[in-house]
Amino acid sequence: MATIQDVAEKAGVSVATVSRVLNGSSRVAEETRSRVQQVIDRLGYSPNLLGSQLRKMRTQTVLVVLPSISNPFYSRVVKGIGDVAKAHAYHMLLCNTDSSPELESYYIGLLRKKMADGMILMESGLSGEEMEKLSALYPMVQCSEYREGIFVPRISIDNRKAARDAVDHLAERGHRRIGLLTVNNTLISTVERNRGYADSLQQHGRPWDAEAVFTGDYTYSSGVMAAQRIARMGKPVDGVFALSDMMAIGLMKGLKQEGFRIPEDISVVGFDDISFASICEPALTTVNQPRYSLGERAMQLLLRRIRGEGTGDESITLAHSLIIRQSTR
Q: Which of 84, 183, 228, 264 has the smallest C-beta neighbourhood within 10 Å, fewest atoms?
């Protein structure tokens, strides 16, 4: 009996592409669709109805895979997921990977063993191809972080525009040398926020300044260390955009320890609007991500996939906002 893998091999396409053809997706070229359909007809392939029935024997459990449960960004996202899950009689299993491929593989194994009905990925070490193949077999949704150009549903904000708005705020308030506190990784959020920073500099006629770019690791302590590097600059920056609130809060603490005044000497803008952002001193100007809504909509999207609804290529972008507080002048 022919399998979906046999069809993919004979047609010279991926399993995900065969799945798209079977689901009637518009994201398949007509020539490819025709070739796949010919192979399906020639092999006499039909979707495994028994497997389909087994998949309907649901566990009422979903997996939520995230890199660090200690990161305050995720708390409201998880709350949104959990509230929708509970409303639909689903249990939520939090899967903390510590960015370990081995741990992520273990949790994916639970999905393969039918111990959960679907998975929400907050961050993944899988390649786009690996994720697409997995999504062709099991309900999955990318939330916040995502791989571009693959057939896996995703929900996020426009990180590039959000970063541009943050740096525009500094430039429009007269800051001339605007620094960037970034992170050394290839996550889509990092790449897009870096691009947004560069976009704003160019728009406002500010030169790219490699000396004003600092690298952290999302932590409070890496923000403090960035402040120490700023203090050693011959001509310090007068504004900094940080890719996360925890780094921004650490940066402000470190700058004050070095004798700088916030915002009189240096303005600081963060990203995420975690709960600490409004209670630190001074209160942090930051980009607000609708974290609860991200989780809520991600779970709603996953439920649709579990029910076999949708095409699998849904892409939802939620609106962000800039929250102006006392850390900028």
A: 264
pTM: 0.82
**CA atoms within 13 Å, Cβ hemisphere of 301:** 26
Q: Is 252 left (phi over 0), alpha (psi -120 to 50) or beta?
A: alpha
Residue 49 predicted with pLDDT over 50: no
User: What integer pLDDT is reported at residue 47 of this predicted model?
Assistant: 66
95/120 Cα distance (integer angstroms): 10
- Secondary structure class of 16 (helix, strand, coil): helix
Q: Which of these CATH numbers, 3.10.129.10, 3.20.20.140, 3.40.50.2300, 3.30.420.40, describes 159-290?
A: 3.40.50.2300
Region label for 12, one of left (φ > 0), alpha (ψ between -120 and 50) or beta (otherwise): left
User: How large is the C-alpha radius of gyration of the chain?
Assistant: 23
CATH of the domain spanning 58-156+291-318, picked from 3.30.565.10, 3.40.50.740, 3.40.50.1820, 3.40.50.2300: 3.40.50.2300
CB within 8 Å of 48: residues ≥ 6 apart = none
Which residues pair with residue 225 across a beta bridge? none
Give the alpha-carbon dihedral of 95, 217, 278, 163, to 10 degrees: -100
Residue 142 contacts residue 157 (beta carbons within 8 Å): no
Residue-wise pLDDT tens digits, 261-298: 999 999 999 999 999 999 999 999 999 999 999 999 99
In which band, very low, low, confident or very high, does the pLDDT at 54 lie, cut at 50, 70 and 90? Answer: very low
Residue closest to 92 by CA, chosen among 72, 69, 73, 70? 69
